[in-house]
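Ligand: iron/sulfur cluster. Inputs:
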Amino acid sequence: MVTWSPSVTLVPTHGCFNACDYCSFRVPLDQAVPLGLPEAKEQLMARPSAAEVLLLSGEVPPDSPTRKAWFARLRQLSRLALARGRLPHTNAGPLSRHEMAALARLNPSMGLMLEGVGPAYDALHRRAPSKTLAMRLGQLEQAGRLGVPFTTGLLLGVGETMADRSRALELLAVLQRRWGHLQEVILQPWRPDGEAARPLSALEQRDLLEVIAMARELLPPEVHLQTPPNLWPLAQLPAALEAGINDLGGIDCVDVINPAYPQPTPEVLRQLLAPLGWRLEPRTCVHHHWWPLLPSALKRHVEQCARLLASDPAQAHAPHT
Ligand code: SF4
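Predicted complex:
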């Protein structure tokens, strides 16, 4: 079985104080236009089949006078999602303990990429103050201490070595053994965007298959391994599943991080995978194993969404609109 989450992405703001070298998502903070509630409602209405609402935000500095309003918007959008019968999953960069605890009452799961360990990442993040290894590991630790079902991942193919990858995966394995909250590790190939977009070469695919196998060996078995299906040549996706991928993540109509790589529809994925014996199953943003961590009110929302996904496959499998 391979799972996926019918998802819609809301971007509270593209404004970000970091400037990661590879980023085509951010705009400078002073040019950012925050997402208004009417637009958010429209975007939710346009994707009635999306059970997950991914709140993917640029980062505001912790000491900024605009931080409070930014955080209030994250909570407001989370509440909007819940009120519409959806499940918010926030990925908005490092949060204080208080902020993370407050969002965890509204978000069944949250996420933050570790990205990686080693000099290749240090170079890419030299203008990104929140992307230090210590900061990211501290966030994963904090989420564990708070009992938040959490998604993290590695950005691959940016010049890191196999030893760097193995060290990053070992750090995640230690965190999972300590706290048990890591529900997914995304193994995300870095891809050039815009006119430079190109499919993964055969060499890159072989390299990634090795990382997937390494991740399956190093991470505890309950941790799902995820890869975005639009970043693989479709015909090669089964090889990634054979190597250990068992989740395709949230699938929206477009990938806001890599817009040059079109998302395959669930129907196309099903047609590809079913003849090979893979059953494609929709899921909520929080995998079943982690439901016991949820506050009871939030758990009821999740159970309701899961029932809808299970009882109304036509809805869960509705074509992207
Ligand atoms: S933190 Fe995220 S949004 Fe900000 S510059 Fe880096 S990749 Fe872009």
